[in-house]
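Hello,

Our lab assistant flagged a job as stuck in the queue for most of the afternoon. It eventually completed. Since we weren't sure the result was trustworthy after the delay, we are filing this so someone can double-check. Below is the sequence as submitted and the structure that was eventually returned. Let us know if re-running is recommended.
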Amino acid sequence: MNNEESNNRKYSFSKSITAIVTVFAFLFIVSLVLLFFVMRHEESMTGAEQQIRLSAQGGFNCEYSEAQKLFPFGDGVVKVTGERVAYLTLSGNEIFSSIVDYRNPSCITSDNYCLVFDLDGYSFTFLGKESVLYSHPTSFQIKGGAISDSGFAAIITSDDNSYGNVYLYDPEGNVISEWSSYNSGYPIACCFNSDTTKMAITTINTVGAVPVPYIRIFNIVATDRGYTVEDNAFYTTDNNDILATCFFIDDALYAFSSTRLYKVNGDVLAPVDLNFSVANFSLLVGDRIFLVYADGVEQMNKLAIVDSKEKILYTSDIGSQVHCVCSGKGLFAISVDTRIFVYNEGGTLIGDVQVDEDILRMGFISGNDLCVVSTGGVHTIAY
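-- returned structure --
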């Protein structure tokens, strides 16, 4: 073998080694990239008990614009548009409906009743699970409302001669009380106790240099001739918080601002010693408060469960983006990031589901399943 042939073989061998090394390096880099994404996917799924495709679940698919009009209620959904209010089954079939003329329809639901009103408009509709119970016009613009477990409705309106009114309707749709706010400020929120013998109204007075919050409590008394409403109590606090949410635990009244929880103790409305910076959601489950909060703007959301003695029973990080929350009989569900967590009243995690669509709204239906309205439709989840 001459030197030229030997050099050619060495050069060919060197080229082969270089090619093999290049291919190996490329495959190694690809493997690392794939491993990185697999690890990220597995990390995001850590702890999920099941992963589901919502489109494969029971219910019906629809466009995102249609899904925005749907609210879980009873064993189906209420479809709310400017022209109609309709109750649909989970298959999308209409059970009953009512013609309306709303520019900005809003919806509030409870276990047995649904209130649909034209926000900043002049009419509202009250529904049960089997029919539209009544519809009424109002003299002033509607600013909000509330419903009780036994079918009472409170409607907050504006007023040309006062800060605002709160009209109270009995289950048959009769007005049993009209309270006008002349000294307490603008009505913000209403709530009822469990047996609808009390109603609370939170207000904010902005006349002075510093806003002043107030709470008024009324007794709802059943008589042989119907119902009467009587003044019960009146509270205020030195803090200038807006009390946007209120609820009763037994006969104890609680109210939330964005940064504090208040409780009526005797003759005093006092802040409860809970450490949170921003309250995002607060729901009552049995006699427990489920509070979704953060330690600051754009911080990780946390869940705290507080008992009737203001003791924190449970707290945990839950995720970055909270889509919605809901409560049922002794149950609480929260949709956060791509997960849905379900807790019982004691704070035990009983469901953890990974979903593939953003959730707009949720509600518990018979059998404790979840009805979810996602960006792609209405579906049921058995967690």
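-- support follow-up --
The delay was a queue issue, not a problem with the job. The result is valid. The CA atoms of residues 134 and 273 lie 43 Å apart. Residues 3-11, 33-45 have pLDDT under 50 and may be disordered.
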